Amino acid sequence: MSDSGNKTGKLVMVSRATQVKEAALATLFFICAFVAVLAVFLIFAFVAWKASPLFSQIGLWDFLTGTQWSVEDNIYGIVPFLLGSLIVTAGALIIGAPLAVLTSVFLSEIAKPRVRNIIRPAVELLAGIPSVVYGFFGVVVVAPLVARAGGGAGFGPLTGWIILSIMIVPTIATLSEDALKSIPMGIREASFAMGATQWQTIYKVVLPAAKIGIIDAVILGMGRAIGETMAVLMVVGNAPQLFAGINAPISTLTSQIVLGMSYSSGLHRTALFGMAAILFLISMALVLTVRLMARDQKRKTKKKDKRL
Amino acid sequence: MSPVTPKTGMDVLREKKLARKGGLGREHAANKIALAILWLAAGITVAALAVILIYVIVRGIGVISPSFIFTWPHGVNSEGGIWPTIVSTLYCTLLSMLFTTPIAILAAVYLAEYAKQGRVVRIIRFAADSLASVPSIVMGLFGLTFFVEAMHIPMSMLSAAMALTLLMLPIVMRTTEEAIRAVPRYIRWGSYGLGATKWQTVSRVVLPTAMPRIITGLVLALGRAIGETAVVFYTMGLAINLPLLPTESGRSMAVHLYLMAVEGINLPAAYGTAFLLMVIILALNMGARWIAKRYHRRMETKK
User: Fold this and answer.
1) Is residue A190 part of a domain?
2) pTM of the prediction?
3) What is the pLDDT of residues A171-180, one digit of tens each?
4) Which residue, among B206, B220, B203, has the nearest Cα to B291 in the 3D structure?
5) Is residue A37 part of a domain?
6) B10 to each of A102, B19, B238, how far by Cα in Å?
7) Measured by CB atoms within 10 angstroms of the end CB, which terminus of chain A is less buried, N or C?
8) Nearest CA of chain A to the CA of B258: how many Å?
């Protein structure tokens, strides 16, 4: 794409001083770009370093499979939080992903420009609302409603699902719309020419073609949901217990870290950093999955092109 | 970000009546139902936004007064205004803007103009994507251990600004790179043809042309930073303070809102803070939109 610059920008006709200056600038730019790599490396290194006593003092196996979390007894098993994160994320995806994908299909296939010009900014604005405002909305509006409908205090997975599913809609919808827009018009025209209705075209032609892109969007939405901190912290009730119903308080990895950090020390702190390291690894794994899927897709289309 | 969405292929198909809306009998019914569901989904999304916005505005607007904005909180924060938190928020986000802008733009210049598309670029892109997806709580803990504990910078505007820079960097890098790539190639050729060096071409031709879109990206990232809570929580501190030096601590609006909502002693202040946060973010969003629109119009008239 950018090879234009590389080929035409050869410095042959300029003075030595200019050449040196250009090379120095190029190096500076490279360093700036490398900041991102350095940052990711440092984040992992520091979090892992702070979590490292965990191996000798708790044991990785006990940490990952222990079902009891008790600061007084110095017992740190994170199964309740792993399950909590899983439950909250899964529920948010079950509600949020279809909503987001359908919205993106609407934006790319159905909406006329005038309608699109209202809905797309709305989606972008949803992405801009701070998570603490979502959490606040959950506390003052959703939780009382949930409490009235299902009893209890209203803080638990159900409230978390409602809030979180709205929060991941913009992430998934934007990326999924990009995927849909990149599908060539020709295959839609072909479908319409065969007499297919709009829905048949969407369902049988457009969605299958954009499948990988949509799955990527959902995976990144999942990453957003797992890593979401403040909103989840404010609405799930925060009790280090196993799932006891959609209205009973639970804790997630993120919410437990915030709660614990304020008074933690020693082994407790180590355990919290261990949870942070796990969150980091999960988010890296999700990004990597998306990458690999995209690469796989590229290779497949290349093969197809060759056959043609 | 496209304020005036250009006509897509679908629009053309629809105008020429080539997209079939209906069908025969059952197909027709199925099509109708499916389209209704799509409308419904989009409607729910917009309704969710509307409910949150309207709720925050209705409950918050009554709290806003000059004294709420410009005075300190007193008592156990049960009365008074939020002035120090507004200053702290703007202080640290603008500071982080100062760090982010040059690094992110130059990094994007490297990726779009200088780098050979190979392994190094792939690694940098992957790192940027990963950085963008690091959960904010992990970023906060990193800020605490790295900037505050290892580098001995106190919990302050400076630590928070540096941690927020890591948050904004991948966002601005991506939008800037897209903006640079959208600059037509012939403009570069013209510049090279006149004998300009690469840096001259980039700094005087490519970047100015891409600037509106770069600014749009910056403004949106600024919105993210202003609303960020978990990162600021661990790097700026919680004490209410009116910061003068970058090494002073403070409490941001987002953190204030969190503490007010959890403590529940002063809900009106929480509504007011939420309202102000939303107003700032709405204004930034609209500002970004306005810049993009103006730019779009200019390009149209040039054509």
Assistant:
1) yes
2) 0.90
3) 999 999 999 9
4) B220
5) yes
6) 16, 8, 51
7) C
8) 6
